[in-house]
What we know:
By secondary structure, the protein is α+β, with helices and mostly antiparallel strands. It is 25% helix and 33% strand. It has five helices and nine strands, in the order αββββαββαααβββ. Strands 1, 2, 3, 4, 5, 6, 7, 8 and 9 form a nine-stranded antiparallel sheet that branches. A hairpin with a 4-residue loop joins strand 5 (91-98) and strand 6 (103-113). The longest helix has 14 residues, at 25-38. The protein starts with 24 loop residues before the first helix and ends with a strand.
Amino acid sequence: MEDPAQRRVDYGERSLEPADLAAHPLEQFRRWYSEAVAAAVPEPNAMALATSGPDGASARTVLLKGVDARGFVLYTNQRSRKALAIAHDPRVALLFTWHGTHRQVAVRGRAEVLPREETEAYFASRPRASRIGAWASEQSRPIATSAELREREEELRRRFPDTGSPDDVPAPPHWGGYLVRAHEVEFWQGRTSRLHDRLVLVSRDGSPAALDDAAAWRLERRQP
């Protein structure tokens, strides 16, 4: 293994100034997301989700499934470690790391369960294999072998015959969506000499705010 302390990347001279920011966090996020897609950043919708549960802090990579004025959307098994942690403490953090553009977006906020109709609408749009997988996996729980999981998957394929309809595999009752409503959104631009630009939009009253409401946010520049 190489010495990771000796690996260095110069992030260049691209900067981020207040005048560069869009009118509100939603527009700025969408702009940077689109630029990450254009730069062929792998899985630009991947984000780290940090939670604090009864057993302590944990983090994992999940996928962004939507963003609008309300906040950021993800879906998961609601019996998983992350879901149990959110039930314990809804304060969460998200981190998008786009290495190809030397940018990050860090979000702090509160997670809440999405209405069931939104979950079911999204679930119906998933590939059949993913819908079967949502039933097959008791996420975060121990299992002796991967063969057991495959056996369960095959059993579920028989239980839910393929009719070609998105309704042939219904959403499990224990599977659902979360909306992360933000009270802080940081836009980080890597720069040379590690003197990175960090522009942070903070909710004026400290509580989650609409991402498209420019008046609800104040700007801070933070040292790298």
